[in-house]
Write a structure and sequence with these properties.
With 238 residues, the protein is α/β, with parallel strands linked by helices. Strands 1, 2, 3, 4, 5, 6 and 7 form a 7-stranded mixed beta sheet that branches. The protein contains 8 helices and 7 strands. About 6% of the residues have low confidence. Helices cover 39% and strands 16% of the residues. Helix 1 links the parallel strand 1 and strand 2.
Length: 238
């Protein structure tokens, strides 16, 4: 039985400090931590598998995309992974569950959010449980999480929770938001406890076609000491 805490990672694309996007993600993380720590007899019957963790069952890490925006841009135009971005990628690769939260701009998740997940290897997040969350200034964007974000995470082959979350300004005082947060957090905990993602990686990893630089790939480093890479990073070929 593996009794190590689950590693839950919050990815927030909010650009202000504080931001409503980070607030929504934090509320989901807090509920997931609380639900995972509940004793077995306080959970619905048969909801907690035999290999579930005891108290202090979840640790939470946060990736603030606004803090690595320049690193993401560098990776997009040159494929150069900076140490800050590498640390974020490593954190995601080790995650047992993810809360991915984005503000809505122009009827879709922010470019910072999509760019970050766009630079990841396609197999980095295979089978990982993910809760999708979005915030916006109007309820007209309420379907962005399902219509725009969910297909991207399906392409990355994650295991997205059935309940996605959206919050416009008027939702913060609505008890229905808290209900949806509870439901999404509970689904996330059950998905983490199922051990599905770990089983996929342990038993079936070799059956996937890995991209360059993936955790299971043969090549994980970039040789910067070549003429081509020196040119790509702004240097000279001499």
């Amino acid at each position: 039985m593996n009794t190590e805490p689950f590693k839950l990672v919050v990815v927030s694309a909010g650009t202000s400090d504080p931001s409503s996007t980070r607030l929504l993600a934090d509320r989901v993380a807090e509920r997931a931590v609380a639900l995972a720590a509940r004793p077995q007899n306080a959970r619905p019957q048969n909801a907690r598998p035999q290999n579930a963790r005891p108290q202090d069952a979840v640790t939470v890490s946060v990736i603030e995309l606004r803090e690595i925006a320049a690193d993401i841009s560098t990776a997009l135009v040159s494929q150069l992974i900076t140490p800050k971005l590498r640390q974020a990628i490593t954190t995601l690769g080790e995650a047992d569950g993810i809360i991915a939260a984005a503000p809505v701009y122009k009827a879709g998740p922010s470019g910072l959010f999509t760019s970050f997940f766009g630079v990841l290897d396609n197999d980095l997040l295979i089978a990982k449980p993910v809760v999708l969350a979005a915030t916006a200034g109007t309820a007209r964007h309420a379907l962005v999480a399902d219509e725009a974000m969910r297909p991207m995470f399906a392409y990355l082959r994650t295991l997205t929770a059935p309940t996605s979350l959206f919050a416009a300004p008027e939702d913060w005082s609505d008890p229905a938001l808290a209900t949806r947060i509870d439901r999404a957090a509970f689904e996330l905990v059950l998905l983490m406890e199922s051990g599905f993602a770990r089983a996929i990686k342990d038993e079936s990893w070799s059956s996937y076609q890995h991209e360059y630089g993936s955790a299971g790939g043969a090549q994980t480093e970039i040789d910067l000491d070549t003429d081509l890479m020196r040119l790509a990073t702004g240097g000279s070929a001499g």
